[in-house]
Write a structure and sequence with these properties.
This protein has 254 residues and is α/β, with parallel strands linked by helices. Helix content is 48%, strand content 14%. The chain has a single domain, classed as NAD(P)-binding Rossmann-like Domain (Rossmann fold, 3-Layer(aba) Sandwich). It contains nine helices and seven strands, in the order H-E-H-E-E-H-E-H-H-E-H-E-H-E-H-H. The chain has a seven-stranded parallel sheet, with helices on both faces. Strand 6, helix 7 and strand 7 form a beta-alpha-beta unit. The protein is globular, with a radius of gyration of 18 Å. The structure holds NADP nicotinamide-adenine-dinucleotide phosphate. NADP nicotinamide-adenine-dinucleotide phosphate (NAP) binds next to helix 2 and helix 4.
């Protein structure tokens, strides 16, 4: 615990979409800062070419986008989970594109968020204080992404995340990123390496809303949208009661 106070990166960090442009840049940046990195990916662990100075990522879990026992067991052991995976169907609007995009960007991300928060509630205090959930929602939450299905998936993810953050038992950081070059967006003006370094710098300053964008409107609209969603959620929904809280109440009742 003392070690983590001196260096916020001394824990175990799992990153989904680890073989993608941002995922691999985040893994490298985290590892350089001293974190133990676990890549979660649909692909096998990358082989580091001989003579390459980069260390291979320390640990790797192959998943199919769904929760299974191996993923559950792994997430219990990590301090930080970065939900980063995603797809963009670009110009498509067919039923398959809608189903695949909602499944990857919204349903599987929500499954992971739910699991991580449930696990965190059940952990002892000394483990819980180090748990952090990072979710990559995208600037598409508050602006056009020239891909309506992608926008819907990321906006819904962001709105639900705001609700879930109201009762979260751990730190929740939201990554709101402008366009960068990757498999998902070949035309982005920023590089994934630049974006990853800015994310890690801003997280080290303990920012919960991490915005990396050249669009000044995003710095105004993202906090505004989050604030409005949070107010709406507080006014119209009840706090979540966890099983742990219910058990405590039950045990305390005479
Ligand atoms: N590029 C941009 O302009 C931009 C802007 C704002 C936000 N973002 C967000 O940044 C995140 C990373 O994207 P990227 O730009 O780095 O694109 P990328 O290089 O295509 O990486 C995305 C990764 O997500 C994983 N993935 C794809 N389909 C999946 C599925 N159906 N189920 C589970 N995982 C899947 C894949 O990694 P594995 O093969 O390792 O599983 C893929 O490499 C995404 O959430 C994206 O929405 C991107």
């Amino acid at each position: 615990m003392e070690e983590r106070r001196r260096n916020p990166w001394s824990g175990r960090v799992a990153v989904t979409g680890a073989s993608g442009a941002l995922g691999s840049a985040l893994c490298k940046g985290l590892q350089r800062r001293g974190a133990t990195v676990i890549g979660i990916s649909r692909s096998p662990a990358p082989q580091t070419p001989q003579g390459d100075e980069d260390d291979p990522i320390q640990d790797w879990l192959v998943w199919n986008g769904h929760i299974d026992a191996a993923l559950e067991a792994l997430l219990l052991t990590v301090d930080v989970l970065v939900i980063n995976h995603g797809v963009n169907p670009l110009g498509r609007r067919d039923a398959k594109a809608i189903a695949e995009t909602l499944q990857a960007n919204l349903v599987s991300a929500q499954d992971l968020i739910g699991l991580f928060l449930r696990q965190t509630h059940q952990l002892p205090d000394q483990r819980r204080v180090h748990r952090e959930l990072w979710v990559n929602t995208s600037e598409a939450e508050v602006g056009p992404a020239f891909s309506p299905i992608y926008e819907v998936s990321k906006r819904s993810l962001g709105t639900l995340l705001t609700l879930q953050s109201l009762d979260a038992p751990c730190i929740v950081r939201r990554l709101v990123l402008g366009p960068f070059r990757s498999g998902l967006n070949p035309y982005g003006p920023m590089s994934a390496g630049f974006v990853a370094e800015r994310i890690l710098d801003l997280a080290a300053w303990d920012l919960r809303l991490i915005i990396v964008s050249f669009n000044p409107c995003t710095y105004l609209l993202a906090p505004l949208a989050m604030g409005m969603d949070a107010l709406y959620g507080r006014l119209c929904t009840r706090p979540t009661t966890t099983n742990t809280q219910l058990n405590n109440k039950f045990n305390a009742d005479p």
